[in-house]
Amino acid sequence: MRAPQKNWALKVSTLVVVTACFVVMGSALLLSQNFKNLLTLWGEDVQMTVYLSQDLSDKGRQEIEDKIKATGKVGEIKLVTQEKALGDFRSQLASYAPDIAQDEELLKLIPSSFQVRLADDISAAEQTQVLSNLASQIKGLQGVDEVSYGQDWVEKYAALVTAIQTTMQLLGFVIVVAALFVISNAIRASIQNRKEEIVVLEMIGATSSMIRKPFMVEGAVLGFGSSTLAVVLCFILFVGIKNLLVTKLSFLQIGEHLLFISPLLVAVFIVGGTCLGALASYLCVRRLNDGYAGSQG
């Protein structure tokens, strides 16, 4: 097949547009991954407070502690006595309300409690359900007055994680459709420029693969080039933002927890982009050598 006259302006513009689509997709993946990492990091501070009855004996406290550990969902459990709770309360109020902080009657109002931290192998997405189930079990134990784990904050936290994941999935779908459309337009233009050669090849009995292969390769190369360039641009953007957070906004203490996508995900991203380009080409060339010559008149 004679080398066709290439419309380089169209090919370059297609490469730029598809690369931009992949950059948005890669940025969304990075944002989702790192936001979940940060939420997981902050979620490690989520604790459950189990308030104990005033008249509970040491044996009763030990029984409650053993039953909480027996659930298999707890990573750490710490007893906070009335004296310690009052000491913490006084230290916090010393400069604001010194008279209240010295009131001995406060000791009767502040109960002892257990501070319960979930096991490390429980993911952020599971924390809400695990905390809810664990709280229900513990509330039924004799000697337990109340259980608190910041229910409102945890529920909002879980809802935020779900919203991020759903948004990224919808965004990814829209971008994939847009990239398919752009690459398909470029392949259609190539087919149009070479239609006379295609007709001649059909007439002399050229096989389907012989006619379709150059266009499939063209689409795959567009997808590969765009996805690879997008990964490079995302990495440059990621390094720039991370350096900014580490050097200029170090007080946020989040820069060191930001991670680029893994090599495996990079490979999947590039392979996916290549396959997307090949698919866009196939949707355009599937009619070639299948009555295409006749349909062109």
Question: Key features?
Answer:
elongated, alpha+beta, single chain, 4 strands, disordered N terminus, disordered C terminus, four-stranded antiparallel sheet
Structure write-up:
This protein has 297 residues and is an alpha+beta fold. The protein contains 11 helices and 4 strands. A 4-stranded antiparallel sheet has the order 2-3-1-4. Helix 9 (208-247) packs antiparallel against helix 10 (263-285).
Topology:
Blueprint: H1 8-43, E1 47-52, H2 58-70, E2 74-80, H3 82-93, H4 98-101, H5 106-109, E3 113-118, H6 124-139, E4 144-148, H7 151-193, H8 195-203, H9 208-247, H10 263-285, H11 292-295
Antiparallel strand pairs: 1-3, 1-4, 2-3
Q: What can be said about this structure in brief?
A:
This protein has about 300 residues and is an alpha+beta fold. The chain has helices spanning about 10-45, 60-70, 80-95, 100, 105-110, 125-140, 150-195, 195-205, 210-245, 265-285, 290-295, and strands spanning about 45-50, 75-80, 115-120, 145-150. Strands 2-3-1-4 form a four-stranded antiparallel β-sheet.
